[in-house]
Amino acid sequence: MTLRHELSGDHPWIGRIAPDVTLGDGSRLSERGHSGGFVLLDRTADGALAALGADWHGRVATVVDATASARSGLLVRPDGIVAWAADHADPSGAEAALRCWAGEPVRRQVA
User: Fold this and answer.
1) Whole domain around residue 81: which residue ranges?
2) pTM above 0.90, yes or no
3) Is position 8 within any domain?
4) Tally of structural domains, the chain
5) Contacting residues for 40 by C-beta, under 8 A, at least 6 apart
6) 3 state SS of 24
7) Span 11-50, pLDDT tens digits
């Protein structure tokens, strides 16, 4: 039996311990969560989720892995549980999850 927290969302990974996938640079997703913040895995071809995640700098570490064939994304909580996942990542869905779990964005000021 696999532990699953009851969280909102339809993706089968939501509420489960994040998969420890190997990323394109040879590192593992689990290694990226050691800082204690949220981890946003961006597997979109255009890096749309990473661009979005930049507004949560300091609370969300963004990991880009464009080597994957799927256009997907994961938001992993500090405890290693998947808070949001999508097989066809939509930035609006990711933004809603980021706001829900990591609070309001802190937009960087342009000098």
Assistant:
1) 29-102
2) no
3) no
4) 1
5) 49, 50, 53, 56, 60, 61, 62, 63, 73, 74, 75, 76, 94, 98
6) coil
7) 787 888 888 888 878 888 888 877 778 999 888 888 888 8
